[in-house]
UniProtKB/TrEMBL annotation:
GO terms for molecular function: oxidoreductase activity, acting on the CH-OH group of donors, NAD or NADP as acceptor. Substrate binds at H112. The record marks K81 as: Lowers pKa of active site Tyr. It comes from the Bacteria. This is Diketogulonate reductase-like aldo/keto reductase. The active site is at Y56 (proton donor). Pfam families: Aldo_ket_red (PF00248). Keywords: NADP, Oxidoreductase.
Length: 264
């Protein structure tokens, strides 16, 4: 199977000059041996983008899976995130993440939530410093509003490369998508299945027409919107199925019908 991270049509540029694979593997709620095995299976299946976080408690297992996989570090895009209550401990948090992952840097480091509901300008300045030190190749945010992103940009001159938010056809928000893109921010969607109704008749009909599962249709919808998607599973068969979305395309009317689910 083709490695996702190695296909030029399956990556999107980041504002700082880097690139992020459109399809990654999420590890939320995976712990211990389960996290290790799922990450190994994902790398074997062809994923080259792994998403973790300090708060997930699985960075060590993700790092071990990467080392044991035999896949070169430079071929894998690694994201981790800082919890909002770690404000003031940014550098130590990232250094602890790198030690657990067993890497010299991460490809993307995110503020996991707006700290205290604010944009967290001081914390963002620390993120910029860690990027300048080479510990994070790109920096971004998660669960931020457009106004909060603007506050960071106006205060520091540095715009987040990514905004990772809950996203699926049922959360489709054209204003948010266009707003991020106009600012040079890549939208990355998490919980694509938890945020969806996999039994919805429109989704099931499109899936049946393509001989795919509703979950595969959702992944494909993200890719065609050029929105990064990070499906998670602990089951090997589903991990493999979620990357098996490159042999078909959704028609414009199907994309529109899926977009409309967000207005239902």
């Amino acid at each position: 199977m083709t490695s996702i991270g190695l296909r030029s049509d399956l990556v999107v540029p980041l504002g700082d000059g880097g690139r992020i694979p459109l399809l990654g593997f999420g590890t939320w709620q995976l712990r211990g041996r389960e996290a290790y095995e799922a990450t190994r299976w994902a790398l074997e299946a062809g994923y080259r983008h792994i998403d973790t976080a300090t708060g997930y408690g699985n960075e060590a297992e993700v790092g071990a899976a990467l080392r044991d996989s035999g896949v070169p570090r430079e071929e894998v895009f690694i994201t981790t995130k800082m919890p909002p209550d770690h404000v003031g401990r940014e550098r130590r948090t990232l250094e602890e993440s790198l030690a657990k992952l067993g890497t010299d840097d991460v490809d993307l480091w995110l503020v996991h939530w707006p700290p205290g509901g604010t944009a967290g300008v001081d914390s963002w300045r620390a993120f910029i410093e860690m990027r300048e030190r080479g510990l994070a190749r790109a920096i971004g945010v998660s669960n931020y509003s457009l106004a909060q992103i603007d506050e960071l940009t106006q205060a520091t001159g540095a715009t987040p490369a990514v905004n990772q938010i809950k996203w699926s056809p049922f959360q489709f928000d054209r204003a948010m998508l266009d707003g991020c893109r106009s600012r040079g921010v890549v939208v990355e969607g998490y919980s694509p299945f938890r945020a969806a109704r996999l039994d919805h008749p429109v989704l099931r009909r499109i899936a049946e027409e393509h001989g795919k599962t509703p979950a595969q249709i959702i992944v494909r919808w993200h890719i065609q919107h050029r929105v990064v998607v990070i499906p998670k599973s602990a089951r090997r068969d589903r991990i493999v199925a979620n990357i098996d979305v490159l042999d078909f395309a959704l028609a414009p009317d199907e994309m529109a019908a899926l977009d409309d689910l967000g207005h239902g």
